[in-house]
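FORM 7B: Structural annotation worksheet

SECTION A. Query
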Amino acid sequence: MNKTMMDILACPIDKSHPLELFEIEEKDNVVSEGALFCPKCSRFYPIIEEIPIMLPDELRDKKKEIEFLKNNKEQLPEKIISNANPWHL
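SECTION B. Predicted structure
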């Protein structure tokens, strides 16, 4: 995900803007792994292989996102790992 997208991205649930960006892997202004966080509704959206996965809760892949959290628990803040919606560790 190119960081310039942060200017236009909003939470799909509550339309809140801006979102917080947490980078795990970044090169040349492109985030290949990371997470977006909505401070209003406390939802996180993973960035996997440069793609922000910003789906409504009912379309999200819980198993894949829990695995993402487990694999990145050292790089992501506590508010995502332990408290974020729709699920956390």
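SECTION C. Observations
DSSP finds two helices and four strands in the chain. The radius of gyration is 12 Å.

SECTION D. Sign-off
Analyst initials: ____
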